[in-house]
Here is the input.
Amino acid sequence: MHASDPVAPADPAHRPAGATLPGGRTRAGRRPPAVLLVPAALGAAFALLPLGYLAVRSLERGPAFAWEAVANERTVQLLGRSLALAAVVVSACLVLGVSLAWLTARTALPGARAWSVLVTLPLAVPSYVAAFTWLAAFPGLAGFGGAALALTLVSFPYVYLPVTAALRGADPAQEEVARSLGHGPVRTFLRVTLPQVRPAAAGGAVLVALYVFSDFGAVSLMRYDTFTRGIYTSYRASFDRTPAAALSVVLVVVTILLVTAEARTRGRAGHARTGTGTARPAVPFPLRRWRMPALAWCTAVTAVAVVMPLATLGYWLAVGNSATWDPAALLDTAATTLGVAAAGAALTTLLALPVGVIAARHRGRTAHLLEQSAYAGHALPGITVALSLVFFAVRYAEPLYQELPLLVCAYAVLFLPVAVAATRAAVLQSPPVLEDVARSLGRSPLRVLREITVPLAAPGVAAGAALTFVVCMKELPATLLLRPTGMDTLATSLWTETGTGSFAAAAPYAAALILLAAIPSYLLGRHRT
Here is the structure.
């Protein structure tokens, strides 16, 4: 099953510099080519910009004061609450994402194409909208349980999408061989299928964990104190930014530990197909007596993740009247939201491409450091990233202050890991031997990247861009701080109306946001079928 392609160079010593070995690895000591390393380093430096701000702010009154700000009972309590919430949400998302991916991609589930689309639609629901809808229906849900429920229902597609892509691209012959050797479906899934999708599931789990750590809207509405809410409270309570900056540094440390742990779970085994490289559809597993339970599971998830928030918004739309509707303002706000999110997704994808390729094809300290750097800003609250960019703009790039490019840069810092994870998973699925052959024929690293690596990974990269577009549309704290004067997005308008208790006036903005975000979510789901 792991035999080398016969056209690959037989002697590793004759491989060109930077070429990958079977399984997607490089020889020890090999560095990524400059055509990847230079832009990846620039992207990593860009993502690390908030850390420079945190270093300045947290240490401006001395290390002793910074240590005093974090080494207290309150900090330990916030860390424990944040870790507990992340653990529950990640575990639930892994169960939901992996099970739904297997049902829609590997079994004879009736209506699998429709279910693939429906279970991606929660991506279109912002966490604060999900929290609001559940809290409006069940006021007693506030607290840990409500926050965990809301975050799980909007986050599990981060696991579902990459796992589905991995299942679609995995070689079904390995499962067929396992079954021919007498392994049952459960043993085949645990010993063959699950290891094939492990990198994708681990990458999605890290994104979910970082999303939980950086979320502000859901935990605020559910009145559950986490690091993010503690940092926000610290910023609002005093003009002294040092305590909040010191707390943010703790989140960065947690992020580094998470990314390191996720990288180790991948191991060094290859995950690309061998042989011809042509995807052959797997024979669907017959559900038989499990058909009805499988349909009930898909129906239940769709009902609580999609139908519930839509029904609540429908109620508030019906309660409202003509005085709460301003179609012209709604259309203008929607157009602004689309433009800003598209710019953010484009910049983020461009920065993520070299980092994702290096993470998939190269091993070593350089590749590990670049990938860790890309994840640095994702766990930071949007308010921290926004203030770091304001700090940078005021001191070194004043023309950018309160201008649209600064907001687009904030989106890139916040959501770079989303695009990196999608790119890395897509490159891992493409056979590295094709790049080896191209290099052995004298192609330059840039030409190999342009003609081999990017075309093979293009569907996954495009899916990552669409996912980034969705999360940019929903982003709230950084948008509130960095938007140009007079500019509103659907997220900021929704938050403003919700903050004053005008739920009927907020409903049109929430409905428009979900509708617009549902379009790329639908395309993502359809792409997987």
User: Anything to note?
Assistant: Strands lie at 20-21, 25-26.
